[in-house]
Amino acid sequence: MAESIFIEIAGRLVQGDPFEHGAKTYEGKAVLDDAGQQRYETFVAIAVPKEPNGNANAIYAQIYAKAQQDFPNGLWQSPTFAWKCEDGDAGDKYAGKDWARGCVIFKLVSNYPVACFDQNGQPIVNPLQLKRGFYVRTSAGVRGNGSTSRPGVYLNLGKVQLLGYGDPIDSGLTFAQTFTTPAVLPFGASQTPTAAGPMPSTPGQPAPMVPGAPVVAPQPMPGTLPAPMAPPATIGAPAPVQAPAAAPAAAPPAPGGVPMPGTVPGPYAPAAAPGAPVPGAIPPAPGFLRPPAPAAPAPGTLIGYDAAGQPVYQQ
Q: Any bridge partners for residue 11, and if so which?
């Protein structure tokens, strides 16, 4: 088998990564060697424009001539011959790939570490400095693989140099292919950042304490009267005497001012003058008609009981 020839291939890095060294299938599965370990391999694909924008046709012509030289028996004419280069405009394999349109895709492999350099010839050690989508060049070694059952050519990847920058190429589906419908804001989400603060408390439960926050006295519910606050105690002064529990509230008197049997008599507030507003009551709205005062009971009507429990009738 003849020795390799070396062809400079300059174009856009569209597949693979010169910093990855594990052989994989087209489906992304690891390729194992005889020992069951992933085979050491570095793979890249470089898209070179066809004439007149590039020299893809001239590169392919050199590979074609080398295949004829290494397979003089005509195996290079086999329909399954592995040329390691594909037309980006043929078939559906690269349909929808803008980087393949008008280009020939050259696929190169190395079984050894690949040295990478920047535009000034300085070594690149950070993989983020050489991404898919950037423009590179390499010196590829080309020769036949010597197989009669699976004939083809090797495109051995040599040193790689960064020539220029382009839009990075992400593997897998694009954003537009992944999300085909407009986004809908989920319930409870905000389109702007929210200020940090305590979670709202459940009605009837105390709010959670936040470290360093001032203590705020609980506020009464609307319509309730605040409880009287005790005066601050003086240091050394005796503790205030607790007031006795209030007596049970007396039941309202029966008509005529006589308490009902079994009730505890107690002081009553003086009756309000007819038409006077009741303290704390909401005055009627303008135009509201008060109901007429009830008529006096007829003579002989039971109006209550006296202190001895005897019935009292209207005179």
A: 136
CA 25 to chain centre: 33
Domains and CATH numbers, the chain: 5-168 (2.40.50.140)
Backbone angles phi, psi at 313, to 5 degrees: -115, 155
Quick one: DSSP state of residue 16?
Answer: E
Highest average pLDDT, of 18-32, 50-64, 220-234, 264-278, comes from: 50-64
pTM, entire model: 0.55
Residue that is written with structure tokens 């003089």 in the block: 72
Q: What are phi and psi of 168, to 5 degrees?
A: -60, 145
- For the chain, strand residue ranges (E) read 5-16, 42-49, 85-87, 103-110, 116-117, 135-144, 153-156, 160-164, 302-305, 311-313
Contacts of 13 (CB under 8 A, 6+ apart): 44, 45, 46, 130, 131, 132, 133, 134, 135, 136
Is-contact 35 27, C-beta < 8 A? no
Residue 5 contacts residue 63 (beta carbons within 8 Å): no
- In the block, which residue shows the tokens 């909401």? 282
Output the six-digit token pair for 198.
Answer: 């305590």
Helix (H) or strand (E) holding 204: none
According to the model, what pLDDT value does residue 219 have?
Answer: 57
- DSSP label of 158: -
Give the span between the Cα atoms of 19 and 140, in whole angstroms.
17
Vertex 276, ends 275 and 280: CA angle to 5°? 130
Mean pLDDT for 248-252 is: 52
Cα distance between residue 60 and residue 196, in whole Å: 63
β-bridge pairing 160-164 and 116-117: parallel
